[in-house]
Design a protein that fits this description.
It is a single chain. This protein has 3 domains: 121 residues, Sandwich (Jelly Rolls); 97 residues, Jelly Rolls, CATH 2.60.120.10; 170 residues, Oxidized Rhodanese, domain 1 (3-Layer(aba) Sandwich), CATH 3.40.250.10. α6 runs antiparallel to α8, α9 crosses α13 and α13 packs parallel to α14. The chain is built from 14 helices and 20 strands. By secondary structure, the chain is α+β, with helices and mostly antiparallel strands. 36% of the residues lie in helices and 22% in strands. The strands form 5 sheets. Strands 1, 2, 3, 4 and 5 form a 5-stranded antiparallel beta sheet that branches. Strands 14-19-18-15-17 form a 5-stranded parallel beta sheet. β3 and β4 form a beta hairpin.
């Protein structure tokens, strides 16, 4: 019998992990083949069982035990009950129903790889009345964030089990700028204010207000440095925190992707954008032609200039800064990748030019003559081009050169197109803002005229 996603059981099913991150149409397709079973004071599985299906608790209480000793007791009010019960195969422990229990068996391959459906997605979705208990559901918005969407259930469970709860009163400072702290934070309930002082004697600048499901502190953990912002509780706040080492191994490292030079070339031909996050001075000295420069300290203020439709390839000279930039962009729904080599290590030679020169292009530089450490990396010589003893070799060399330049121009045109798209989006956004302001002013003016007439 299919599960009705608008029923009480359906609400539980929608919040199971990883089902919570599925779009409505694939989830409905899976629900059509689900069967909820019922058991009373009996075993859902025993130690040594090899059935590979995942078992999820829908209603009731389950006791997990090993050799008669109780390991854990779960009911649907536990966050850990949103994961499959003791999913290691063969089973390491027993799962015993305490009283009547309703549960669901799901094929692991099916839920991790939902069926590909041919359909036109509409804007329909199932609407639920939010109950009081839903206000404690911090995990759903967290799992729907871009960072966590593609994580495996095993890693998500490790993260959940590693979280520790801490509480703060209204007005209490949670983290102070300049101090060190070894935790990654998730807001479970409440609202926080983020502020920053550009200098010790400067006035405090309000950056943002954030609430349930948002995360805090990743930059300081990636850089292993003091906090750059002060975070204050605007209401009663409940946080969950994860130690730095677990944040690095379970969240940061699985989230980041690296590309080599050949992979970067292929991405650029598909419209990717190179984002150089070094300082303006470093960028001016030497950079990849066609790249965009947003220094890392300005990225949080200017990242919306980038198009979410294009892959972003991050380049720079510092691995840690590259990682922090990529993590920030991924968190905001960009496909960010990191070039494995730093700008200073990029070398273009005659041998690799055909596969490399087209996207690295010639480096722009303001001090090629003065900087003795920098040497031209792609030089055509008379002995190599145009004066070969063999006319056929000369023609091949000439065509190769032309092909390289055409690839270079194609990549630069793609970069220019990406810039134009970003500018178009910014202009459209500004237009919408101005249009709304004009509407409001018109309403005020009409109201004023009506009052004056009376």
């Amino acid at each position: 019998m299919a599960v009705d996603l608008s029923s009480a059981d359906g609400l539980v099913v929608r919040n199971l992990i990883p089902l919570v991150s599925l779009p409505s149409v694939p989830l409905k397709a899976l629900a059509a083949n689900m069967v909820i079973e019922e058991i009373h004071n009996d075993f859902l599985f025993k130690k040594g069982d090899t059935d590979k299906r995942l078992i999820y608790l829908i209603k009731g209480t389950v006791i997990l035990q090993a050799q008669g000793l109780v390991v854990d007791t779960l009911n649907i009010d536990n966050d850990s009950a949103r994961f499959a019960l003791a999913h290691q195969i063969p089973r390491k422990i027993d799962a015993l129903a305490k009283g009547t229990v309703r549960f669901l068996r799901l094929d692991a391959e099916t839920i991790n790889n939902p069926p590909t459906l041919v359909y036109q997605e509409d804007t329909g979705y199932v609407v639920f009345e939010e109950s009081q208990s839903d206000t404690d559901d911090w995990m759903t918005p967290l799992l729907k964030s871009h960072i966590f969407q593609n994580m495996s259930p095993v890693i998500l469970q490790k993260i959940t089990l590693g979280l520790e709860s801490v509480n703060f009163n209204k007005g209490e400072i949670i983290l102070k700028q300049g101090t060190t702290d070894a935790y990654y934070y998730v807001i479970k309930n409440g609202t926080c204010l983020l502020t920053h002082k550009p200098a010790p004697e400067a006035a405090e600048i309000k950056l943002a207000q954030i609430g349930k499901g948002n995360t805090l502190g990743e930059d300081a953990l990636i850089f292993n440095a003091p906090r750059t912002e002060t975070i204050t509780a605007l209401t009663q706040v409940s946080l969950l925190r994860l130690p730095r080492q677990q944040f690095i191994s379970l969240i940061k490292e699985p989230s980041l992707q690296w590309v080599d030079c050949l992979e970067m070339q292929q991405l650029l031909l598909s419209g990717a954008i190179i984002l150089d996050i070094r300082t303006l001075h470093e960028y001016g000295d030497r950079h990849i032609t066609g790249s965009i420069n947003i220094p890392f300290p300005a990225l949080k203020a200017r990242y919306k200039k980038l198009s979410v439709e294009n892959s972003i390839i991050i380049v720079g000279n510092d691995t840690t800064t590259n990682e922090a930039a990529a993590f920030f962009l991924i968190k905001h729904k960009y496909r960010a990748l990191i070039l494995k080599v730093s700008i200073g290590d990029i070398v273009v030679t005659l041998e690799n030019a055909v596969t490399f020169f087209s996207y690295v292009s010639d480096f722009s530089t303001q001090q090629q003559q003065d900087d003795t450490d920098w040497k031209p990396q792609y030089v055509y010589t008379e002995s190599a081009y145009g004066h070969s003893n063999n006319d056929l070799d000369a023609r091949i060399d000439a065509l190769t050169t032309e092909n390289i330049l055409l690839k270079k121009n194609y990549a630069e045109l793609n970069q220019h197109l990406a810039h134009m798209k970003a500018d178009k989006e910014a202009a459209e956004k500004q237009y919408r803002i101005l249009f709304k302001q004009v509407e409001k002013l018109t309403q005020v003016l009409n109201k004023f005229k009506g009052t004056k007439t009376q």
